[in-house]
Amino acid sequence: MLLVGLGNPGPEYALNRHNIGFLCIDFIAHYYDFNNFKRHGQGLFSEKIIDNQKVSLFKPLTYMNRSGIAISEFASFFKIPLEDILVIHDELDLEFGRLKVKQGGGNGGHNGLKSIDAHLGKDYWRLRIGIGHPGSKEVVTPHVLGNFTKHEETQLENVMSAIQENFLFLLKKEMTTFINNVSVKLK
Question: How far apart are CA 185 and CA 30, in angstroms?
Fold first, then answer.
């Protein structure tokens, strides 16, 4: 399975809400003791066998709006089918810290997903992590590109722990069990 975290490269973006996908990939890599990330094409990747399954972690370096280019090249090179790709990304329309998993669907105006849809199609899995909506369309960009507050950082650790503890359900594509377990932990 290929797990892709969406984000923007560079230290100035590291704690942006838009980089929650990169953060999640880094938490998983640390928790499961993946090797250091290596450059492949237009991204960074690491891989490991977990529960008898090859798992690749990938962070595109093309910036959010061009994520699909890097993901498509990587998936094509390693012949990874769409149904074995899980994209982890921020979601404005979910309350901060809430999670949803689904296969396929629309992009909800998310530029990273638009790029992936254009280069790969829509039938990949998505792990949507809520960052909350600021309430007004005019402040969406500063909200998304803004850093997490201290309170959000504390909540984020709980979210990442819940994902790590239930990670094997994601790998087995037991998405209902994954969401149910995570929801109980985050209550």
Answer: 20
